Amino acid sequence: MSIAGFEVEVDRGGGLETEEMTLNMGPQHPSTHGVLRFVVKADGEVMRRAIPDVGYLHRSIEKISEKVGWHGFMPYTDRVDYVAAMFCNQGWGMVTEKLADIEVPKRGEYCRVIAAELNRISSHLLSIGTMILDIGAITPFFHAFREREKINDLLEELCGARLTYNYMRIGGVAWDLPPGYEESVLAFLSQLEPMLDEFNTLVSDNTLFRGRCAKVATISAEQAISYNLVGPNLRASGVRYDVRRDEPYSVYPELEFDVPIGLGMAGEVGDSFDRYWVRFVEIKESMKILRQCFRQIPAGPVVAKVPRKLKPQEGDAQIRIESARGDMSWYAVSDGSEFPYRCKVRTGSFAAMSIIEELSPGLMLADLVTVIASLDIVAPEVDR
Amino acid sequence: MDAASIHSRLREKFGDKILSAEASVKDPFLVVDAAAIRDICAYLRDAEGLQFDVLTNQSGVDYREQGYIEVVYHLYSYAHRHYAVLKARVPRDAPVLPSVVTVWKAANWLEREIYDLLGVDFTGHPDLRRLLMPEDWVGYPLRKDFVEPEEYHGISTSRESLLR
Question: Which of B74, B131, B135 sits opposite A318 (nearest CB)?
């Protein structure tokens, strides 16, 4: 948080007097999905620079980890990214399991993947729904959120919570799937399919929507890699990389799915439309994964035997998982005690937020909203 | 390329700038001379066969008892699908090391965060300001000897316990 960027520059060249405007966007702007702020320097409608100012949602989650112990930190991880909290649960679980050499039972891993993929669909639905809302179309948002509500119901049935799940435990998951869960999820998936087609005709082929997204804030593959953009944002730039497929963890090696990349369907590869499109197609891939999971899930325990007073060996470890917003990297240091010595999480939105300043020059002021939405930035994930 | 051969290649190139190497732990790592970190990173990014094109994570850890702050670089290569972990140690009372923003742009915000929370000074960083904490905050919260102030601009940082 800072006040830098409010110095006014006056250009008196060329007779007519012009002045660069300094505008403040946020921190309570509705399109920022959380609380974040931009200091925009604009020349009329055209941006010279948009300087992100973050930190409004800094809840010092990393510091909290040092005080609450390995098990006790699990509910806090939900708050890292409350739109896709399952992945944060899984990340913390995996990094601790790596440090303490705990093996998760097979059924536990499948439960994790089922929960995570449901969460991915709900997160992508929120992302594309609100993206269209921010651009100015209201109807598709309700279609997306209607389906997301159903996933919230399913996850509530699974773990009792609709947003901050606290479903996973170190060594597995808290509860087995409830009776009849397979039928409810499969029924949901089969009605989601026609809805997605409807959504597609409503939005993806819409000229106005394409016009607002095509060739807006194009990110090249080199730029994306240098800024460490991850997940759908990276794939939209044409890099076919998915942690689930390329550095497999959990039971993903046993599952088949495609990794969609941006094709430049509306304009050029890596523009805002491609980022929308990659998320849209990924919903279908997640559905594919869910169906396979229910076919393959074995019987057995869902959680390993983990001591209540967990004391991992001294040392450090890093893991990466494919969250809804891409490669989420967890780094934890243990000093052999009951409390983590240090925990650090690098999230997808953090990288996506830092690229905006470079993307902004020359864009229209209204496009800033498109850029934030297409990068799927969730503010708590930036600040933690 | 496996960790051992990456390590031996770096030893060949940088000699005594590589202080120690650990290949038999969960994430093999190298401890390198903090002053040489930018050269080592630039080499790792560009050298044929290594090509670490992405900085996936950069963290700072305060080891108070040992008297240093460790900056940990997690590197990954999309081209070759291999990892490397570099650790640079700087003294707690004068934590200064070169910035790697010129090598990976991702380092810009990651270094700002480490500066903000641990007080590490990255020389050559284009915009080293606090990122998450308010600009006028005093102290570095992730240091182990940080004491939370009682109030901030008249706002109390503690509250009475609700459990009585």
Answer: B74
